[in-house]
Write a structure and sequence with these properties.
This protein has 161 residues and is an alpha+beta fold. Helix content is 47%, strand content 25%. β6 and β7 form a beta hairpin. α1 runs antiparallel to α2 and α1 runs antiparallel to α3.
Length: 161
């Protein structure tokens, strides 16, 4: 069995822009709620400045820092014997799953991912830990991962349980 190690491939560089958009939109929503709470008088005094500062910091950090950090961490690799994934930004998760344990391989393209031409591949295995996800792949890379895993799992019969 292969060693638990850092996977070889980075996700698509466009993932940074997608993540920046996700976090930026979420941050703007939080900041809008803070502004409404300040405007209606729910938050008063020095707390209103602190709340606005925290909201602004969330927008900036979410859109400008987190995507680059996630891009540096998110990696994947498919070999003849295993699927490697590494993800996270605050908490890093590195997983390996033997190909013989792969049960299903799915792709997902939400509206934002479609806008950036990206795909998420979800690999379900016979593991209590759950599925492996590779976010931020180009459509071509995702299709190649699905083809490779389909071919490899067919050639490596296992019990997948």
């Amino acid at each position: 069995m292969d060693q638990l190690r850092e996977p070889r491939h980075l996700v698509a560089p466009r993932a940074k822009a997608m993540w920046a958009t996700e976090y930026g939109v979420a941050g703007v929503v939080v900041l809008a709620v803070v502004v409404v709470l300040v405007w209606t008088g729910t938050i008063t005094g020095a707390w209103r400045f602190a709340a606005c500062a925290v909201g602004g910091l969330l927008v900036v950090a979410g859109a400008c820092v987190v995507p680059f950090w996630r891009y540096a961490v998110h990696r994947w690799e498919i070999t003849d014997t295993a699927v490697y994934t590494q993800r996270g930004w605050l908490v890093r998760e590195r997983r390996i799953a033997p190909v013989s344990r792969v049960q299903t391989v799915d792709t997902e393209r939400g509206p934002l991912a479609q806008l950036f031409g990206l795909t998420t591949v979800t690999i379900t295995t016979a593991s209590a830990k759950g599925e492996l996800r590779i976010e931020g792949l180009t459509r071509n890379d995702a299709e190649q991962v699905v083809r490779d895993l389909t071919t490899t799992t067919a050639a490596n019969p296992g019990d997948a349980t």
